Amino acid sequence: xxxxxxxxxxSERPAGAEELARVLGDAAGDGLAVIPVGGGRALGMGNxxxxxxxxxxxxxxxxxxxxxxxxxxxxxxxxxxxxxxxxTTWSASASRCPTASWPGPAAGWSKTCPVTT
Length: 117
Hints:
By secondary structure, the chain is α/β, with parallel strands linked by helices. The chain has one helix at 17-29; strands at 2-3, 6-7, 10-12, 34-37, 54-57, 64-68, 73-76.
């Protein structure tokens, strides 16, 4: 994994919250510079990092944690893509809601959308 010309020394792909906590705790204890990586399309955006010790890939953090039609909310892990959300979750008439054409992980967007049940 390369970000702005810096190559990570190592990478981790945690499969759940407990593993993510362990990886981050170990990295903090070792003084490692961690960069989270989702779909990888925006790695060149922003200021270049001074260091890049650990690439934290979120692709395995891809589950729906909670879906509440009553509250019109869905809570997901950081690596889920909109394509992975069930088609019935979002109402087709919701013009301002995320769609399957959104590129990459759902991390970074937050919307309230009508939900079909």
